[in-house]
Amino acid sequence: MKMIDLGRSGLHASAIALGVMRLPNLDRPRATELLDAAYDVGINFFDNADVYSNGKAEQLFGDALKKASFTRDQVLIQTKVGIVNDRKATHRYDFSKEHIVDAVNGSLKRLGTDHVDSLLLHRPDPLMEPEDVAEAFLQLQNEGKVRQFGVSNFNPAQIELLQQAVPQRLIINQLQFSLMHTGMIDAGMHTNMADARSIDHDGGLLPYSQQHHMAIQAWSPFQYGFFEGVFIDNDKFPELNALLQKLADQYTTNPNAIAAAWLLRVPADVQVIAGTTKPARIRAIAEAGDIALTRQEWYDLYFAFAAGNDLP
Ligand SMILES: NC(=O)c1ccc[n+]([C@@H]2O[C@H](COP(=O)([O-])OP(=O)(O)OC[C@H]3O[C@@H](n4cnc5c(N)ncnc54)[C@H](OP(=O)(O)O)[C@@H]3O)[C@@H](O)[C@H]2O)c1
């Protein structure tokens, strides 16, 4: 399994990680089975959030961890806060010091651990006051509750705004990124052109992340659209799936591993956050950690995307 020093922080994480957003689909024994399967193939990083099923995902993860074949200190646990759990709340995001600190305390209790290895702010809060966040981060760090900090779904300007206030280096940005969600790449390839793909939707996230050695955690690596479905083995995308299968045969692996290896081939600290709930599937995806696609294969996959990634 390929390992990544996340944001050059000393957090040595597997390039394939398991996200537990969908864990509540399982009962506790099956959740433990999934965590064990992940660990057995070299996955040492687990992504949570307080908002997943209103805390149920963290609770189940914590419960499953107690029965797992590995111990807490053999793995890295991440959670995310900042989205208000109450769907009826009129304010959607809350980056106040009080909310962040309380949310982390709630997460730690559910996860059954005294610290998380990394904490991300889940989605940018337009009412963010960076100094307030800085106070929260400092308190959480001083109390030993959080080792490293990062963000999710932030653009470079939002990161800079926060970074100038917080003393800790922000080491991770978790973003939607897959063969079917390539905005980060398209805009750079279409710079100064007038077509739709030239539109910069993210403020230059890819070169920013590369320059600042900020790890990109790719969420929904096998989905298209916004949770519209899985593109692997999906009849809507015949050209892409034919190529995934061809390369899978060539590398003696499977299409999932090729799709994940495509993300890992990008010269940034990319970590794939897979969300499967099936032991067999996480074992298949983990094979990506040993595959290095060639430059030609990477481009062939990019251009096989049925919606048409054209070459300028
Ligand atoms: N930061 C954010 O805003 C954000 C947003 C969304 C997600 N996330 C994180 O990213 C993680 C992954 O997200 P995700 O679950 O949407 O990602 P995903 O790995 O792309 O999708 C997994 C889902 O697709 C299903 N699936 C069906 N066929 C599949 C196939 N051939 N290959 C792979 N999956 C297949 C899985 O079902 P089975 O369980 O049956 O395999 C599962 O329900 C989450 O757990 C969470 O940690 C973060």
Describe the model.
Helix 9 crosses helix 10 (279-286). The chain has helices at residues 28-40, 56-67, 97-111, 130-142, 156-163, 183-189, 205-211, 238-250, 255-264, 279-286, 295-304, and strands at residues 3-5, 12-14, 16-19, 45-47, 76-81, 116-121, 146-152, 170-176, 215-219, 223-224, 229-230, 270-274. It is an alpha/beta fold and 312 residues long. The chain starts with a strand and ends in an 8-residue tail after the last helix. The longest helix has 15 residues, at 97-111. It has a single domain (3-304), classed as NADP-dependent oxidoreductase domain (TIM Barrel, Alpha-Beta Barrel). The strands form three sheets. Strands 3-4-5-6-7-8-9-12 form an eight-stranded parallel barrel, surrounded by four helices.
List keywords for this structure.
312 residues, alpha/beta, TIM Barrel, 8-stranded parallel beta barrel, two-stranded antiparallel ribbon, 11 helices, 12 strands, 37% helix, globular, binds NADP nicotinamide-adenine-dinucleotide phosphate, NADP_OxRdtase_dom, AKR_Detox_Biosynth
